[in-house]
Amino acid sequence: MTFCFKPFLIFCSLFWIVSCKSQSTISANEEKNSPIINDTTFVNLKDYSPDFVYDMKYATTDNFLKAKVYDCAACFLRLKTVEALLEANKKFITKGYKIKIFDCYRPLDIQKKMWEIVPNPEYVANPAKGSIHNRGGAVDITLVNSNGNELDMGTSFDYFGVEASHKYLNVSEEVKANRELLKKIMNKNGFNSFDSEWWHYNLRSALKEKVSNFKWDCN
Ligand SMILES: [Zn+2]
Predict the structure, then answer these.
(1) Same domain, 50 and 139
(2) Which residues surround ligand 1, an ion (CB under 5 A)?
(3) Residue 120 maps to a domain
(4) Are residues 13 and 76 in the same domain?
(5) Strand 138-144's sheet: what is its strand order?
(6) 20 to 30 Å CA-CA from 17: which of 2, 117, 176, 182?
(7) Are residues 10 and 96 in the same domain?
(8) What is residue 205's predicted lDDT score, i.e. its pLDDT?
(9) Distance, CA 200 to ligand 1 centroid (Å)?
(10) pLDDT at 211
(11) What is the DSSP string of 70-87?
């Protein structure tokens, strides 16, 4: 037995040493030569399409915090969220509309500030668990027509009341149709709606991504 086993062991050890060495060399070269972008990498939406309208509310004082909590306006998301959003926007454009964006990725520290002001999980995710915004998988959006005017969705963005809910049916037929249009196309492109906020959409495949707290560069 010993006689048969020894050469095999030597062969295995040699194989292990060679394969470890080659693996570490490959990954070092990859890192050196190209930034590794995969579908969970955070990217800036504006680098992927000129066809969105931006009104990044938390880079202004026009929000429920009454404070400018982002140093500058930008829409960062995981690449897979961007890709799904591009597909949805293409569909809206064929119908004469465009997506207008209010919020995208949100650092966890900002989530904590929001929770201090509105500690109600119907409207703000508890930072202990983290929001899908903190995971780069959520967007707050509406639609604009070809003149750039927002469609009537019944309430303003971040209106914290039952009137903003998909379940609240005491709205005009026009509002109902506008919310339905937004929801139908977002659903078809991989997003879930959120009952209490007509403007909020979560990418289904991003629900379990890691929470992040990086701040984007404003230069
Ligand atoms: Zn949201």
Answers:
(1) yes
(2) 140, 200
(3) yes
(4) no
(5) 53-54, 98-103, 138-144, 197-203, 191-194
(6) 2
(7) no
(8) 96
(9) 4
(10) 97
(11) SSS---EEEHHHHHHHHH
